[in-house]
Amino acid sequence: SGYGHTVPLSDGGKAFCIIYSVIGIPFTLLFLTAVVQRIIVYVTRRPVLYFHIRWGFSKQVVAIIHAMVLGFITVSCFFLIPAAIFSVLEDDWNFLESFYFCFISLSTIGLGDYVPGEGYNQRFRELYKIGITCYLLMGLIAMLVVLETFCELHELKKFRKLFYVKKDKEEDQVHIMEHDQLSFSSISDQAASMKDDQKANEPFVNSQSPTSNDSSLNN
User: Fold this and answer.
1) Per-residue pLDDT at 133 exceeds 90
2) Residue 165: DSSP 8-state
3) CATH at residue 51
4) Which of 71, 78, 110, 179 can bridge 2 by disulfide, Cβ–Cβ 3.0-4.6 Å?
5) pTM for this entry
6) 199: in domain
């Protein structure tokens, strides 16, 4: 999330932070993408297909209901319940501030104005930090799964098509004709080159015609 409450001070630390970020951020994105693509098969696609085939409901209706239920479960498990827990564990936080921290963290904004586990007199502080790290990682994966689920809805796909750049039919026909002409010219060039190769490989033939050879033999 990049809260900014812990920063490198030395030049070596700053250089290491740059190199580590350049390598670590792409690998983190690849890891999250791979995990989300595998989770969404079991959490979204198979349940929707099961209710569609087993009960005969419309696939679009099932997908919408499933997305809403999944979104409600994610908000409850990663926003409301953790906010209540943080409001109890953190002395200076109320429920709104705790919910604000959950939203800012899982949306990857990470302003850093609220950071849990900063009190040195807090019990089990190290274990508390590890638990927060696991919560943030699982919450980020859950958020990506929910976003991917909503993006697969048919209605949102139609809405996204409004922002696509449409090509005119005349331009498409011109491109197709140009492609055909290029293909035809390349084929003709290949045929001409093959003929030239065949002529070059033919054995040397006498320039005299067969009739002249016959007449010379008769004489």
Assistant:
1) yes
2) P
3) 1.10.287.70
4) 110
5) 0.70
6) no
